[in-house]
Design a protein that fits this description.
single chain; mainly alpha; membrane; four-stranded antiparallel beta sheet; transmembrane; 22 helices; three-stranded mixed beta sheet; globular
């Protein structure tokens, strides 16, 4: 089949998962031992999957699709919990499909649920016979043991190289046209379509990025106004007024984001009320089934309580120890490096050399921070974290501490020691320009270079094979080959705990800290941030749709630990901007508590109260979401109480 015909078949059948196998180095020999790949294909088809084999240049591929009935039965076998129309998450049953909430696009399962079903089906293929089965691949013979997963065995033997999700060409092209290449709508994004295609975590990131960018236009306009209009005798009030506006803006933005997040979860049918139990690996049904009435009577509650408290405080002490190690590393190793850069920057005379010095510094600090990130990952392994979400949050806090020092210490140095606002503005501009150019260059060029290199190696190797016809051109003719060679969406630090959103959120948090903590020094900084984020939305979309493999879906109901970091940066912004105002109005540097300086100190305390007070004025969830939640809870309590009464009645009957 030609390349065009194969692409049409792929779009029609909707292949979503691919298994990658090495290419055979020799012709398959005939004999009593069954070929490994043929057996795998037969078992996959026996599991109800649609299978297509593609022999490509770099490897051989097995593409998988699944009818809805196959996915539904797999979800029931997995005892998957899905949200019902009464607001309860119940075990999925294929014959009761009408009771479960559908996705915004009308489908029964979300992308994450479908991917989990695929993995359950392919890893659930086990040897159910009473003896070992001999299979071979490329002249080597393997033994498939009883009750052993075929995929697990083939991965251990190096036969299966990789399993990854495939892009859906129809949906991918629609998102390219309506989202990634749609520059006319600025910050508008099809969030529901992004959720259906990429899952909750990536959709939540883009919803946050879009809302953050839209809200940036308010301080950007205010900041531009302060630079264009001369307020005459009232000029000395402009920066304090701008400062108060920015802090209030940040507080309301974070509160309204919580409202938007809860509304999105309600619209997507995600019940986050049980998320904490899921993160701890606790199933409510198992708790209720595992304890009978007699066991509850005789269980030692005090012993269980002391055990839980001991484990809790032991985990806290481990995290304190690891955080202390990171802080000491920052003080002893990173702080001297940062101060040396700040001093060299101050004594450098030409602007070109300052830009060059900043570029060299930003490149060098990346490698230093990655070393610190690897140390953080190793420390997290020894923490008593409960679940992957807790470990990811611990990694976020530790790595952000490293980046916080390397991003802001030079700016603090200029603000507090040299007290030169003009120099500080110059440093801010250079940091924004150089860092954004470097980050966009690295973020968009590295995946393309990796793909080009892998493509060159695969084609070059194919040309030099003995059986390849001389003079015949070699090229990647199928879409699955090109997807396989693309880089994965992984984090630069702690890839086993986080995906590529770690780097994207880190970039946003560092930008938010820079524009907030030094707002009074350079009000125009919000204009730079708004323009950068408009392009960042489309650049990140292109990266996911064109340059990278389709990411594996991850469950995340909120932006997690990053929200705490944004709130921490708001508090830091109150302190740093008050310091900047002192530097502006105390030109003699005598630090005397005069009426103006006293007013700044009073304003600092007032803004801290505003920060914590305003957060209670805006409810964290819309009224309709709260009303639905209350109604669902009442319905769930009614169902549970009836079920509990029936269970007690049956138990009393047995006792009689």
């Amino acid at each position: 089949m030609g390349a065009e015909g194969e692409g049409a078949v792929e779009e029609a059948t909707g292949f979503e998962v691919c298994i990658v196998l090495p290419k055979l180095s020799r012709a398959a020999a005939t004999g009593p031992t069954e070929d490994c790949v043929a057996r795998l294909v037969r078992e996959l088809e026996g599991a109800g999957l649609l299978v297509e084999r593609v022999r490509g240049v770099p490897a051989e591929f097995i593409k998988l699709a699944a009818p809805m009935g196959t996915l539904g039965r797999a979800a029931a076998d997995m005892q998957m919990k899905k949200l019902t129309y009464i607001g309860m998450e119940l075990q999925f049953q294929w014959d009761q499909v009408a009771a479960f909430v559908r996705q915004p696009d009308g489908s029964l399962f979300s992308w994450r649920e479908r991917y989990c079903c695929f993995r359950y089906l392919i890893y659930g293929i086990v040897n159910k016979t009473n003896s070992e089965i001999a299979i071979k691949f490329d002249g080597k013979e393997f033994h498939w043991k009883q009750s052993e997963s075929l995929l697990t065995m083939l991965e251990a033997e190096g036969v299966v190289k990789r399993i990854f999700p495939l892009h859906d060409e129809i949906k991918r092209k629609q998102l390219l046209r309506n989202w990634a290449l749609n520059w006319l709508d600025f910050t508008w994004q099809p969030i529901d379509e992004i959720y259906s295609y990429f899952g909750t975590k990536i959709a939540t990131y883009f919803a946050f990025l879009g809302m953050y960018t839209r809200w940036l236009f308010f301080p950007a306009v205010f900041g531009l106004t302060t630079q264009l209009i001369d307020f005459g005798s009232l000029q000395w009030l402009v920066l304090p007024a701008f400062f108060i506006f920015v802090i209030s803006w940040a507080v309301f933005f974070l509160q309204f984001w919580k409202r938007k997040n809860s509304a999105l979860l309600a619209r997507w049918g995600i019940n986050c009320s049980l998320s904490e139990y899921k993160n701890l690996g606790i199933e409510l049904s198992s708790l209720s089934d595992s304890l009978t009435v007699e066991e509850k009577k005789f269980c030692d509650v005090s012993a269980e309580k002391s055990k839980l408290q001991r484990n809790e405080w032991f985990g806290v002490l481990l995290r304190i120890r690891n955080n202390a190690i990171i802080v000491l590393a920052i003080i002893c190793l990173q702080l001297p490096f940062e101060l040396a850069y700040a001093h060299l920057y101050e004594i450098t005379e030409t602007e070109a050399m300052k830009y060059l010095l900043t570029a060299v510094y930003l490149v060098a600090i990346q490698y230093y921070t990655r070393i610190g990130g690897k140390v953080s990952v190793n420390l997290i392994k020894y923490e008593n974290n409960q679940g992957e979400e807790s470990s990811s949050a611990s990694l976020v806090y530790k790595v952000f501490g490293l980046y916080f020092m390397q991003s802001y210490i030079g700016l603090f140095y200029h603000a507090s020691l040299y007290r030169d606002i003009l120099a500080l503005r110059q440093v801010l501009i250079q940091r924004l320009i150089v860092s954004q150019v470097l980050e966009n260059l690295i973020e968009n060029s590295i995946p393309y270079l990796k793909y080009s290199y892998k493509k060159y190696i695969a084609v070059h190797k194919k040309k030099h094979e003995k059986e390849s016809p001389v003079g015949r051109s070699v090229r990647l003719s199928t879409r699955v080959e090109k997807e396989y060679l693309k880089p994965s969406y992984t984090a630069s630090i702690g890839a086993e705990l986080e995906d590529g959103l770690f780097d994207d959120f880190l970039e946003l948090a560092l930008q938010f800290g820079m524009i907030m903590m030094f707002a009074c020094a350079f009000p125009l900084i919000f204009c730079f941030a708004a323009l950068n984020n408009v392009t960042e939305i489309r650049a990140d979309a292109l990266k996911l749709l064109v340059m990278l493999k389709r990411p594996e879906p991850r469950a995340a109901a909120t932006i997690g630990a990053w929200l705490n970091i944004f709130q921490f940066l708001v508090v830091m912004a109150i302190c740093t901007n008050c310091l900047l105002l002192v530097c502006l109005y105390d030109e003699e540097g005598k630090w005397r508590i005069e009426p103006g300086l006293a007013a700044i100190l009073i304003m600092e305390h007032a803004l801290l109260l505003i920060k914590f007070g305003f957060s209670h004025f805006v409810p964290e969830e819309p009224a309709w979401v709260k009303a639905n939640r209350v109604r669902y809870v009442a319905q769930a309590q009614n169902v549970c109480s009836k079920q509990l009464l029936r269970s007690i009645s049956k138990f009393d009957g047995k006792l009689d």
